[in-house]
Amino acid sequence: MRIKAKVKKDITIVKFMAKHIMLSRTEALKKKKKPNYITSIIATVNDEIVFEASTSQSLSKNPYIKFKFKGGNKGETIIITWKDLQGNKKIGKAKLK
Prior knowledge:
The protein is mainly beta and about 100 residues long. It has one helix at about 25-30, and strands spanning about 1-10, 10-15, 40-45, 50-55, 65-70, 75-85, 90-95. The longest helix is centred in the first third of the chain and has 7 residues, at about 25-30. The two termini are about 15 Å apart.
């Protein structure tokens, strides 16, 4: 997972790419595999949720996501966690710059 997070004035801008195959049900049937795509994404700073999304198979392979939130200080750590349909979990961390 690649994460970039910058603080400008009182707003933190976060950009990240979740590396995942994002195999929709239709594609899975064609490839004779089980569907597997990211179902939820949560971002926290200092144990406070700053972004939460419930996603579906409509996201592209290796989805790129950008969001903003008010607050955050340089040097703090943002933790982004995603879970997929098969129960896999990935955690990424980055310092706010």
